[in-house]
Amino acid sequence: MALYEMRKFVAPEFIFGVNARHRVGFYARNMMARRVFVVTDPGVIAAGWVRDVIADLTEVGIESVIFQELTSNPKDHEVMAGAEMYARERCDVIVAVGGGSVIDCAKAIGIVHTNGGHILDFEGADQIDIPGPPLICIPTTAGTAADISQFCIIVNSPERYKMAIISKCMVPDVALVDPETTLTMDSYLTACTGIDALTHAIEAYVSTASSPIVDVHALAAIKLIWNNIEQAVSMPSYLPARENMLLGSLQAGLAFSNASLGAVHALAHALGGFLDLPHGECNALLLEHVVRFNIAKASDRYKQIGEAIGLEMTGLTERQRARRITDALSHLRSRLGIVNSLAQRGVRSADIPELAFHALNDACLVTNPRHAQIDDIKVIYGEAM
How many domains does the chain have? Predict the structure, then answer.
């Protein structure tokens, strides 16, 4: 009898380390690129990272075009504008330089270009027939892991929610994961993206689709992020902490890309689309409440998570385990200076029914360890208020 269930594990080629971003010319040339479509945003341009990329492409004789008309929590109409520009400029390779919003937008632009139609047509799992053009990702935040995952999150503007597009076609061809590019993040963005990565690892570890390979990456990520996030926030220019946070984010990405996520992300996606709130901040406010909701169905898993973050879990009841973990998460959020409640970010009790409706239909809820009804989701939102 087999010890483990058969599981698939998908990952792109990636280069990790200082100066990895400067390999972009090498990879673009190997992809036979003639004209590269660089997807980014004004903040990343101001930080100087796009200048580096353009110089590296120019050095190997490759032309480039910049698309920067996108916002945090990328919108469907921004994707469509990017796809139109990609075709008009006759580009043949995409390079994404930025955080999760930039990389998700780049993925979506590629899919629309090769498949036609509208980006809203691809919501859900395995709805894409044709892979996008070659895609190179250079992440500038340590949190989303969009650069190595099968996920793409885009705001459905008419319905005001974030939709998940999940497909092997969304896995980039190459990720150039360079810790130096995270040095320009401010402390609050560092905190929020770090909590996003921690949530990825925790939700992957308790996912109903977890596997032994996922578990290795998820637990390693939890330890790395927990032990380095406060130093990265308090000492933004300290490269070793940045390296460990980016490595933790990468490992968490490998985990959740192959095990999916859970209720924290389902509820956060609804919030982000409805009120355009920062994704990591939403996760930080919801995580402890979802742990409390889930623990009855994944008690041993949460015990191991508690031990990974240095908590003594021996001899505790299920309720005591939940209290110890949620207290630790709450205290970490406070030490990082993240807001304490959804109400502080403008969420009203009257918004909860619509938020719960969208969260209930999010693809991430499928692999949550405890089945959630709409009333359960309303309670979790209420606790986070």
Answer: 2
Cα separation, 162 vs 281, in Å, equals: 15
Of 156, 182, 208, which closes a domain? 182
Specify the CATH number for the domain of residue 205: 1.20.1090.10
User: Which tokens is 102 given?
Assistant: 């930039």
How far apart are the C-alpha atoms of 199 and 45, rounded to whole Å?
28
Choose the final residue of a domain: 182, 211, 239.
Answer: 182
Residue 75 DSSP class: B
Look up the domain containing 375 and give its range: 187-384
pLDDT tens by residue, the chain, 385 residues: 467 788 888 999 999 999 999 999 999 999 999 999 999 999 999 999 999 999 999 999 999 999 999 988 899 999 999 999 999 999 999 999 999 999 999 999 999 999 999 999 999 888 999 999 999 999 999 999 999 999 999 999 998 888 999 999 999 999 999 999 999 999 999 999 999 999 999 999 999 999 999 999 999 999 999 999 999 999 999 999 999 999 999 999 999 999 999 999 999 999 988 888 889 999 999 999 999 999 999 999 999 999 999 999 998 888 899 999 999 999 999 999 999 899 999 999 999 999 999 999 998 999 999 999 999 999 999 999 9
- For the entire predicted model, the pTM comes to 0.95
Same domain, 67 and 171: yes
Find the helix or strand (DSSP H, E) in which 241 lies: helix 239-259
